[in-house]
Amino acid sequence: MYPKQSVYENLPLDLSRKQIRLVQIEPGRPDDVLTCKLFCVALRQPACPFHALSYTWDQDPPTRTVKINETDFLVRRNLYSALVQLRHPSFPVRLWVDAICINQDSIVERNSQVPLMGDIYSSAAKVIFWLGEGNNTTDLALQALKRLVVLSQEPECTKTGMNDIFTRPWFDRTWTVQELASAEN
């Protein structure tokens, strides 16, 4: 699935301590290279607040490059879009993201981390739900939600936009219910 990613070689997890990895998106402008740091922490370490990202994996292979600990790391298009959108211009953003924080090439690691996902999502300061990139119709639909306007009173493109949002793959995932239920905020 993923090509061998050397970013994990110097960051082994201590599975006996319920360690996880977090990815820190470094500040930058929209056109800057997406630069991140990956590091290990004990789960529920109060000195290290983080957000957890809930999103869907694309069907396409990873093709977008993110610089993690000075190493090129490939991610899928949808995740790349989320990371770019979440990057702040002035301060770092700490996240738990399954495709980056779990070595997808290691069955042992995946098998040890998946049972922790409920704890990971409930330990997160916030859970961020990424439905995908917006477009004209979804932007209109989100504006309508913010205004709490009855959809039947809005233009037809708003209804189309709402349908576009709620038929996104995120809503079809089994994990989303667990992630939503585990989120404190």
UniProtKB/TrEMBL annotation:
Domain of life: Eukaryota
Span of domain Heterokaryon incompatibility: 50-179
Protein name, entry field: Heterokaryon incompatibility protein
Organism encoding this protein: Tothia fuscella
Organism lineage: Eukaryota, Fungi, Dikarya, Ascomycota, Pezizomycotina
